[in-house]
Protein: Inositol monophosphatase
Amino acid sequence: MVLEKIDQLAREWLEEAGNRIFMALEQVNIEVEAKADRNDLVTNMDRATERYFAEKIATHFPEHRLLGEEGYGEEITSLEGVVWVLDPIDGTVNFVEQKRNFAISLGIYQEGIGELGYIYDVVGGEFYFAKRGEGAFVNDEPIPMLAKENKLENALVIINTAAMHKFPQTLAAIKAARGLRLYGAATLEYMAVATGRADAYISANLSPWDIGAGKIIAEEVGAIVTRVDGSEMVITEKGDSFVASPGVHAELLRDYFR
Ligand code: 2AM
Ligand code: CA
Structure:
């Protein structure tokens, strides 16, 4: 089965890429460049990691395509065939400023369906994985299904500043919640919801590689993933993202976003 082969190699490559990133953190020569704006950074390690995957995929699976942040893959607008959706470093600002709280993110899509998801928090030592229909895991321990009936008043919510600007009603939602948390890496914010450390994550302006793996893993434990208005989130299109446990998703949608 091709998915088994992909899984075996993806794990090897993620481990190797994680080791290289870990070693790079010890050295002083991380080269940082701003892309679109001063929050949007890229380093030599983002590029080296994506290039490493691009070469491995081309060698082992020449018919597969890569959709990656740093442009070593192809222009992709449809998810025909097998597509590797990769963010070599999600949370690059954290990588540069904190040397932690970043992750490698890889989602495997086959004919548009998310089959395998991996998020590797290299410094935190947490390896999140899900296979569609077979559950989600962190370091091989099953992640429990999310409680269905949580309420906003008991919920921690994660809402990024772009979403606060775009959706002013988020401020009232934060006030109604138990508290606000921000981590600065979309993948780890998705995993905070998947593991119940937060109940909702709302973000504007995410790209396919920010959400490709997170969606697969979060949905596998019963999280609801949509756009902020509740419509379907098509991962090939850039835009806003709203992931939450079922009760909190329904309450936020009903009272604030519809
Ligand atoms: P990145 O580190 O891979 O760029 C917080 O900034 C989160 O939003 C991170 O997951 C970051 O991913 C993502 N993000 C997406 N587009 C961004 C942009 N233009 N500037 C800053 N962060 C962005
Ligand atoms: Ca990135």
Notes: The first helix runs from residue 2 to 26. The pocket of calcium ion (ligand 2) is lined by residues 46, 69, 87, 89-90, 92 (CB under 6 Å). The chain has eight helices and 14 strands. Helices lie at 2-26, 44-60, 92-97, 161-166, 170-176, 186-194, 208-220, 246-257.
